[in-house]
Specification:
Shape: globular
Number of helices: 13
Largest sheet: 7 strands, parallel
Order of helices and strands: EHEEHEEHHEHEEHEHEHEHEHEHHH
Distance between the termini: 14 Å
């Protein structure tokens, strides 16, 4: 097939979407497809056999990664290039919002449902320092997603959790949604990076509050009595970092937390290999590719029951799962891992084995089916 592939990320691996898009495009090329990738100029990379169509990086767009403005740029390329292809695919389906009356069938991937889950009964909105702005943004996001997803002939959801949420929330036909789990590409080995702390905990995420950092800080406060040398390492860039640092001060754990900011992918993998426990207790998580990345480094993983990760990993053998927002339960799970070396080893080894079920080739085959269904109407 001739595929016009739109993605916000391709080179920088700022988030799981970048890892996903790069692995998927390379695999589709390897499977014999003709792939033209439309991406921001600074994300352009050489693809063996693929064509890159760069677009300007949006400026003054407050949406994450400038996705709203990118949608306009993508729509212009779609009008110009679409008829030369059999199908167009959006690595993030919401970026197809401006693709009205396209000259080619469309498909897109959906990686999360957090704008819908924000409205859920019991969702801890009060914990968010930016809850008013976030609530307004999520209302806007639901409006855009609902209209956009209903126009796309086919959608690939990264988990059954995301599929169920968007089918119900946006009143979509289940026949148009297919679950395509993410696959993790094999990375070249990286040196282990020793981390301060005994034990050393690692959190990686670009949205601190939604990914449960306030709950982790509360759990850290409780753990320090039995583990005075414990240290939490936080990787990621978030405008709410000052609020999280203030919370750490109020809880008395400021000296036990290091904010590292954004780090290159290889360094993050080295930090994962050096961590005693990888912890990300998200309030919602579509799939949680970062859990798989930590498992690839053999780090024991403590994850959240919310979202899709529970579909793919076995409790007690490949990860420990906790209820979102349960700081005491989170502290107990972390304590179990750091006090039981046998459990820590079992989780590390089990996590690595689990990745054999999440191959890039299977992800590409599932996406290929979605693309063929879209192209054939």
């Amino acid at each position: 097939m001739r595929i016009l592939f739109f993605t916000q990320q391709l080179a920088a691996f700022r988030s799981g979407v970048g890892t996903y898009a790069r692995a998927l495009t390379e695999s589709l090329l390897a499977r014999g497809h003709d792939v033209s990738v439309v991406a921001p100029e600074h994300e352009a990379v050489a693809l063996d056999g693929g064509r890159i169509i760069p677009v300007p990086q949006p400026r003054r767009d407050p949406t994450p990664g400038g996705w709203f403005a990118l949608g306009l740029s993508f729509a212009r390329v779609l009008r110009r290039e679409g008829a030369k292809h059999d199908v167009a695919f959006f690595a993030d389906a919401r970026e197809a919002w401006a693709a009205w009356k396209p000259p080619v069938p469309l498909a897109g991937a959906v990686h999360d449902a957090y704008a819908l889950e924000w409205l859920g009964q019991g969702y801890p909105r009060a914990l968010f320092a930016d809850r008013l702005k976030r609530s307004a943004y999520y209302a806007f996001l639901r409006s855009v997603e609902g209209r956009t997803y209903r126009r796309l002939p086919r959608l690939a959801a990264n988990s059954a959790h995301v599929a169920r949420a968007m089918i119900a929330g946006y009143r979509l036909s289940p026949a148009r949604v297919r679950v395509v789990p993410l696959g993790l590409p094999e990375g070249t080995p990286v040196p282990r990076i020793a981390l301060e702390g005994r034990p050393a905990l690692l959190f990686v995420g670009g949205n601190f509050q939604r990914k449960g950092l306030p709950v982790l800080l509360e759990a850290l406060s409780a753990l320090r009595a039995a583990h005075p040398e414990i240290h939490l390492h936080v990787v990621g860039r978030d405008r709410n970092q000052p609020a999280m640092a203030s919370l750490a001060r109020r809880l008395g754990v400021e000296a036990a937390v290091t904010f590292h900011g954004w780090q290159p992918n290889d360094r993050v993998r080295g930090m994962m290999a050096g961590a005693d426990v990888f912890v990300m207790p998200s309030f919602t998580e579509g799939f949680g590719l970062v859990y798989a990345e930590a498992m690839a480094s053999a780090a024991p993983v403590v994850a959240t029951e919310a979202g899709g990760a529970r579909e793919f990993f076995c409790e007690g053998e490949e990860a420990l799962f906790v209820r979102p927002g349960d700081a005491m339960g989170l502290g107990r799970a972390i304590a179990r891992v750091i006090q039981d070396p046998e459990l820590a080893n079992r989780l590390g080894e089990g996590g690595r084995r689990a990745l054999s079920r999440l191959s890039v080739d299977a992800m590409a085959a599932g996406t290929e089916l979605v693309l063929r269904e879209a192209a054939n109407g």
